[in-house]
Amino acid sequence: MATKSAPKKAAEKKKVVETKDVEMKEVAPVKSQAELDALTIEDIKEQIIILEKSVVSKEPRFVMRVLRQLASTRRRLNDSVLRQLIKNHQSDSYDFKQTLLGYLATTESEDKPQYKSVISDVYIHMLTLVYLLDSKRINDGVPCAQALINKVMSVNKPSMQALGARCFFYYSRAFELAGRLHEIRTILHGRLRTATLRHDSEGQAQLLNLLLRNYIHYSLYEQAEKLISKTTFPETANNNDSARYLFYLGKIKATQLEYSEAFQNLNQAIRKAPQSTAIGFKQAATKLLVVVQLLLGEVPDRLIFRDQHLRLALQPYLQLTQAVLAGDLGSFVTVLERNSEQFTKEGTMTLINRLRHNVIKTGIKSVALSYSRISLTDVAEKLQLDSPEDAEYIIAKSIRDGVIEASINHEKGYMETHDSVDIYRSEEPLKAYHARIRFCLDIHNHSIKAMRFPPKSYNDSLEDAQKQREREQQDLEYAKEIAEEEDDGLL
Fold it and tell me: Which pLDDT tens digit goes with each residue over 403-438?
């Protein structure tokens, strides 16, 4: 009986525990929109206080802290929140206050006006612009952006540098969405000159990226190359701006047939990008990286196509890679026709068209491995070329480039392959080791540059140590004097 009752008691205890667990679960009350708006306003008020603190302490890190919260803040903005902020936290002397209120729906506000400095006025103006762009109100966003930049350019304070750089980003974004990106190129050039003279590293990095994006948007790659050659990207720029600059630089180099430099720049851009966010940026950079690797004759890593964030976006590029590696010109043309609209939209169509020669070279390499002697007519048929003369020309170019070891008999019309040379007797292993060593050294150098040390506290510690040594020296001298006095007293 005891053995039968034991399982029953255990089951009853289990039921009691389950009922207790169910009873402990409480559904959190759903907050109303007014409560959510009030929380958003309080958060923005705290951000304004931090901005004011940066003005007093002249520390740009407080502004960067606020800008890092912008991604979460912009999702909670609406007409009611922005109207209360403008009415109660922008000074009446701000030139565009009434203009900003005109963009928003009328609501009631209960807070008392609390006027702040110009940095809070500019920050609220920027939030309004971000809200207009997120709401697809581009016609209102363009004049709002123009008014914001006019205000930013009239203020010359170190505390405005980081915030001003972000304002120029949204200014450029507004004109890009309106299809008027070419109109702001002169303003960006002038502002870049001013930022360079003022040693504004944040502004330099942001404006260089905006100008490169402007040139690439209109396919002005030569002007972009001239801009890169005449400017220097600041080493103290943050990782996000550095990643964008390297991405644009890789795209420009790839277009100008400098694939090795483009490959290095794109690799660094992906490494510098945030690992958990910025999925769209990593997708665009990885797509371009895959095409550049194929143009270099290398095989992209299979793990890239298996990444959960990249798998679907890279599906056409996986098919493209398979066609190139197989040397199948028919499959390559099919993939190109099927995804031509997507490739054109992503800006990789020009580079992908260059892969046709790589596909043919891969096919010739496989033919050379399979046959010791083969007629040019059969080569043209296998590679789906138009005539044996085309096959002869392509084979001759492949022999000259060192792709295959073969010779052409022009009289009898065939290709004869030779034994391949041992690769370890060539310079290829040396080049491979050199590339890997350079890659490791680049990672080491960038890691050292990314380290930041507080210079003021370091100097303070040096001064403290120096004062301590002086104090110890004085103590020693004082002890010697006391000892001498005691000796004199004893004598």
Answer: 666 777 677 777 777 766 666 777 778 888 888 888
The DSSP string of 233-274 is: --TTS-HHHHHHHHHHHHHHHHHTT-HHHHHHHHHHHHHHS-
Q: What residues contact residue 88 under an 8 Å CB cut-off, 6+ apart?
A: 109, 111, 112, 113, 114
Taking residues 92-104, what's their average pLDDT? 64
Q: How far apart are CA 319 and CA 337, in angstroms?
A: 12
pLDDT at 2: 45
For 389, the 3-state DSSP assignment is: helix
Q: Residue 305: CB partners within 8 Å, gap ≥ 6?
A: 311, 314, 317, 318, 321
Candidates 114, 189, 121, 115; CA nearest to 154 is: 121
Paired tokens of 421: 């040379």
Q: Are 242 and 205 in contact (CB under 8 A)?
A: yes
Alpha carbon distance 125, 143 (integer Å): 12
Here the tokens at position 423 are: 């690769």
pLDDT of residue 462: 53
Cα(432)–Cα(421) distance, integer angstroms: 17
Q: What single DSSP character describes residue 275?
A: S
Give the largest CA-CA distance in the chain: 122
In this prediction, residue 490 has a pLDDT band, given cuts at 50, 70 and 90, of: very low
Amino acid at 220: L
- Per DSSP, 295 falls in state H
Among 122-126, 321-325, 457-461, whose mean pLDDT is lowest?
A: 457-461
Question: 375 forms bridges with which residues in the sheet?
Answer: 414
* Integer Cα distance of 299 and 297 in angstroms: 7
Distance between terminal CA atoms of the chain?
104
